[in-house]
């Protein structure tokens, strides 16, 4: 008979490869968690900066002239946040979060650039263009036309005197 006998002790041991795999999974989870926390910090900073971008947008759209330095400062602050996002090493879910946040920041930078050009030329295209129409007078002279003027519209003058001819 093979097997265990009554009252014998059994010692279970875990494989070393299994321990390593669990430790690797745990460290990956910790790295993803750290990356998500770093992305969340950048996101809160970007949210604060967006409030400033939004107020600038309101000012420019209402026609208020804004100092160009404001645009430069906000653009630089957003670029710093982009650099922070680029320095975050992420995998999986954190990588997708980082990518979406990078796109968001780039969109705000593009918005600032368009607002800057709109602010530099406040009388440019605001969507309210003035259309000038000209009512041209029409003539039946036949000049420039391939068809002669109609005889009914023009009146012929009848000479009242005989004209003398010189030869």
UniProtKB/TrEMBL annotation:
<feature type="region of interest" description="Disordered">
    <location>
        <begin position="142"/>
        <end position="167"/>
    </location>
</feature>
<keyword id="KW-0143">Chaperone</keyword>
<dbReference type="GO" id="GO:0050821">
    <property type="term" value="P:protein stabilization"/>
</dbReference>
<feature type="domain" description="BAG">
    <location>
        <begin position="38"/>
        <end position="116"/>
    </location>
</feature>
<dbReference type="InterPro" id="IPR003103">
    <property type="entry name" value="BAG_domain"/>
</dbReference>
<dbReference type="Pfam" id="PF02179">
    <property type="entry name" value="BAG"/>
</dbReference>
<feature type="region of interest" description="Disordered">
    <location>
        <begin position="1"/>
        <end position="27"/>
    </location>
</feature>
<protein>
    <recommendedName>
        <fullName>BAG domain-containing protein</fullName>
    </recommendedName>
</protein>
<dbReference type="GO" id="GO:0000774">
    <property type="term" value="F:adenyl-nucleotide exchange factor activity"/>
</dbReference>
<dbReference type="GO" id="GO:0051087">
    <property type="term" value="F:protein-folding chaperone binding"/>
</dbReference>
<dbReference type="InterPro" id="IPR039773">
    <property type="entry name" value="BAG_chaperone_regulator"/>
</dbReference>
<dbReference type="GO" id="GO:0005737">
    <property type="term" value="C:cytoplasm"/>
</dbReference>
<dbReference type="InterPro" id="IPR036533">
    <property type="entry name" value="BAG_dom_sf"/>
</dbReference>
<feature type="compositionally biased region" description="Basic and acidic residues">
    <location>
        <begin position="16"/>
        <end position="27"/>
    </location>
</feature>
